[in-house]
Write a structure and sequence with these properties.
7 helices, 2 domains, 51% helix, Heat Shock Protein 90, five-stranded mixed sheet, 279 residues
């Protein structure tokens, strides 16, 4: 069965289902980061109270310390100790709490941008920076990345814009990344290998009027026999639904009039090359 035989309706339905999954994941990420911010704000409030105890009587100091260190192990409960040392340590933790909160706020902003893209009008074409699209897909899948994975690549900042359907193209990149994650997590790396690696590169050739995105990994690789079937609907090496690469091919070739090729060797990793024409 080829992609054209299963129909646009089925693929659109599958993409919609996966979009809901990504949206739920985005909401979980926002919830986690919001909890981090709330915790840090509570910590900062208690820290402010603690820094004021130097004006209290010894009895008041002890009571203040006991009250403000209920959830913070960095202060010795019930023992004032060296107040100056405690305050120095507290200042360092305040600085870290502020930094963590700012990071969480920036990540919430990034997640909000992702929600805007994956919930946008699927059939709206617009200019998109291909590097930023890849980076945002990586951010969305950060929790699914195998531990110890090194991400390398040449993703230029700006200058690589393309008119595309960002909703669909991001789904294609996400599916390719998920396949790379599975390949490197299911592959027993050789002793001399440096660990799981995913690489990216983006290049453009004005005279050929296309942008090429390369995604490679040092995972399990694919045999020549398997490679002939990987875009077929419901074909899967990992026991999943088997529509991920079918979606990728549909998005690249049908929606963007581009091309996709896969270079791979069993046990040697995989390189996926996507070429999309530039109008």
């Amino acid at each position: 069965m080829v992609v054209s035989q299963i129909g646009d309706e089925l693929i659109n339905r599958e993409i919609t289902s996966r979009t809901y999954d990504y949206m739920r994941d985005c909401m979980r990420q926002i919830h986690t980061r919001a909890e981090c911010i709330i915790y840090n704000l509570c910590f900062l409030k208690n820290s402010q109270d603690f820094t004021n105890i130097s004006t209290h009587t010894p009895r008041q100091k002890s009571k203040a310390i006991d009250g403000n260190t209920k959830d913070h192990a960095h202060v010795s409960s019930g023992n004032t100790g060296d107040l100056q040392s405690e305050l120095t340590e507290l200042r360092a933790e305040i600085h870290k709490a502020i930094g963590d909160s700012l990071t969480a706020i920036r990540e919430i902003y990034n997640v909000a941008e992702l929600i805007e893209v994956i919930s946008s009008d699927p059939y709206k074409k617009c200019l998109v920076d291909i590097s930023e699209l890849v980076k945002s897909a990586l951010f969305l899948l950060k929790r699914k990345m195998p531990p110890g994975t090194t991400v390398k690549g040449d993703l230029p900042n700006g200058g690589m814009t393309i008119r595309c359907y960002p909703f669909f193209l991001k789904h294609a990149v996400i599916e390719l990344l998920l396949n790379s994650f599975t390949a490197i997590s299911n592959y027993q790396l050789n002793a001399g290998d440096s660990g799981p690696i995913i690489c990216f590169s983006v290049e453009t050739k004005a005279e050929e009027h296309f942008i090429r995105l390369n995604i490679s990994d040092n995972g399990s690789g694919i045999s020549n026999e398997t490679k002939e079937h990987i875009f077929e609907p419901y074909f899967s090496l990992w026991g999943r639904k088997g529509l991920g690469l079918t979606i990728v091919k549909w998005v690249i070739e049908k929606k963007h009039r581009g091309s996709i090729s896969i270079l791979s060797k069993k046990g040697k990793g995989t390189v996926v090359q996507i070429s999309i024409p530039v109008p």
